[in-house]
Amino acid sequence: MDTATEPQRRATRPRADALRNRERIVAAAREMFVEYGADVPLDEVARRAGVGNATVYRHFADRGELVRQVVRTVMERVTALAEQGIATADADEGAAYGALRTFVHAAAEERIGAMCPILSPEFDPFHPELLDAREQLERSIEDLMERARAAGQLRTDIAVGDLMVALSQLTRPLPGTACPSMDRFIHRHLQLFLDGLMAPARSDLPGEAATLQDLRQD
Amino acid sequence: MDTATEPQRRATRPRADALRNRERIVAAAREMFVEYGADVPLDEVARRAGVGNATVYRHFADRGELVRQVVRTVMERVTALAEQGIATADADEGAAYGALRTFVHAAAEERIGAMCPILSPEFDPFHPELLDAREQLERSIEDLMERARAAGQLRTDIAVGDLMVALSQLTRPLPGTACPSMDRFIHRHLQLFLDGLMAPARSDLPGEAATLQDLRQD
Amino acid sequence: MDTATEPQRRATRPRADALRNRERIVAAAREMFVEYGADVPLDEVARRAGVGNATVYRHFADRGELVRQVVRTVMERVTALAEQGIATADADEGAAYGALRTFVHAAAEERIGAMCPILSPEFDPFHPELLDAREQLERSIEDLMERARAAGQLRTDIAVGDLMVALSQLTRPLPGTACPSMDRFIHRHLQLFLDGLMAPARSDLPGEAATLQDLRQD
Amino acid sequence: MDTATEPQRRATRPRADALRNRERIVAAAREMFVEYGADVPLDEVARRAGVGNATVYRHFADRGELVRQVVRTVMERVTALAEQGIATADADEGAAYGALRTFVHAAAEERIGAMCPILSPEFDPFHPELLDAREQLERSIEDLMERARAAGQLRTDIAVGDLMVALSQLTRPLPGTACPSMDRFIHRHLQLFLDGLMAPARSDLPGEAATLQDLRQD
DNA sequence: AATGAATGAGGGTTCATTCAT
DNA sequence: AATGAATGAACCCTCATTCAT
Fold this sequence. Notes:
The structure is a homotetramer. In chain A, α5 (about 95-110) packs antiparallel against α6. Chain A has a domain at about 70-215: Tetracycline Repressor, domain 2, CATH 1.10.357. By secondary structure, the first copy, chain A, is mostly helical. The first copy, chain A, has helices at about 15-35, 40-50, 55-60, 65-90, 95-110, 130-150, 160-170, 180-195. The longest helix of chain A is centred in the middle third of the chain and has 29 residues, at about 65-90. Chains in contact: A-B, C-D. Chain B binds a DNA duplex through α2 and α4.
């Protein structure tokens, strides 16, 4: 067998095809969460990924682990988008709010809808596997908001949690299935919300500015 | 009792206990839609309502019929709130936008999240049972918005659908889970969104102002 | 109350409307057994009979009792047909076999298909309620066969059980529903079977001539 | 093993245990249709087959598919019996009717009662899966009857449908119940019916000679 | 490592039967 | 006596997960 020809790598190397399978499964799940909601049968995900159903369980102990993996992937992509925005803002302070707007709309497009499972009751958003990704996401968005705040373009009574949760909510996939007309609304709503975020504030806000961390406090 | 005064109605009068059950089922379903999303097992609804499972089917031929009943109930309650707002605005033109704000926050409290099933693919928003309720709801909100628009307080590039969908989305229960911290955000988000709705508009909106009808046109 | 005016009858008299209901229920059940098989929901029987479902239970302790009542009714009707055949045969010995033929086809028409429940596993064909009806039925058919046998027209190695069971089987309603094309076959089959019953016998029969009573022996 | 000699087939070969299960399920269903009629709970079939309930659905998408498989199996067995009869008749023309008799009794033993579901309203006898089996069955019986007809031993006013339906009816399991005494009658009835089929005809038949196809024409 | 097959628990719905008016 | 309503058990089917190849 050809494993015998390369014995030195055998123990540590995840086999190339296994890696490929893992990624294919995550990608398939991400697409299907967006398309069909968080309830897709895992057998369907396996089929779309082109692997057997049991292979999913070899890579992910249970449904929750796959879901978390998908969420982590999306978080990383969105973090990347936020960092692009920071770069833009750093290049031109006057562009800070524009960079925030651009980021918000891009994040909405970035399959953020695949994060829909986080809304399900079984999902534990504080799972250790997600810690790093969430912190990085939060930090990058916070940084981006700080740029706009420093430029006097963002109201000062809000924090990253306000933006993140609203962004999640406004882009949510309408549980159960794809309501394609929804897409027409999403960017309008985001735009309206962003208008509301601008300085000067047009109203007093109830409650306190909140970070994502705060979500876990109650 | 008035049965004595109108004995001719005796045959068709629904029994008191049956009516009570029916209402208990609708109330239980409303709460559970808010808490757990549109997919709650009907057996759980029955348990929460304190009736046997088959009783649910005696009153509602299938899941869809129950869902429509819940939606109709919520629509009617929200319509009532909008009409209160109209009265307020009519009494004092300067209070028009304040009345809109009050309405939005009150609607959020009014379990509007129980309307979440309307977003599921199986839901038929054009079902005859809902026609009246939806038209009245839309008309009353439109009227309320018109008051604020006439007072020059509401931007002119939005329509009732924009408000309704965003309201639904922003108040959605993080379906399934008990995330009580959510409530802290909801009114902040609504307030921010309302700030974005104020005239003068702070940005151009993509797409077109939309009515509720438009939601299903695509 | 008028029960007070006729106290002597009070205890024994079934109310006229109750009697009417009882008969309507049996009639409805008979028709529906023929049309839809032995599995019709009792609620449907009640509806067809024009009474409430619970009324069925007031008259018949459970489904089995209703079924037995229907079967008894049909047995009585068929008995009457057999007795007509006997009269014909007695009037003209040469007509004995013709009378048997006529009886068999008439019995098939006489909703004997409503006896289909006797074939269900739950049915107890030896229930006391049916004893009399079955004995009279058996006796009358036996008598009719005896006329044909005496006239030398019927083979001698068969008994009433052979005819009754075959008659039931050949006229059975095709469980589950109405297979209307079936009717085209029934009288052909009966005719062929009757041809096989004629003397002289064309073959040896396995087993023993059997009465209905024998059915219970095993 | 031959997998080594034909490795290219490896991917599609059904697993041995799966095949065994599939056959066990069909066999269990066949027996239970005979014993309890076409309405047996599939869970019971699964139990009798010694598999989990879901395994039934893995092999057969729904109840209909299992039923068709059972029917097909029985048709094939009966076809084989008819072909044996043809061979006998071809070897000795005088044995043609005897071969038909032998076939009929053998078919009765061959659990032909398991075909009872074909009489239910939900059953689609024209389903593609059954086409071949039904044509072969009909053709083989027709051929066998033709031998007897050619030998002048079978009346000429009947067709294959007459025989098939009567055979089905007379051998039907008293669905649902364990009425073992029934077996005593079946072969007597078949014998009597076969006597009625012999030439010369002893009576005129109503209706028309019918093929199996005719069963569903109305 | 990967797979197809098997499994049991659970959800929706129907129906015989019981209860309250 | 009659009824409409209520009930729970049962059935069909699906799906997450485990097993055997």
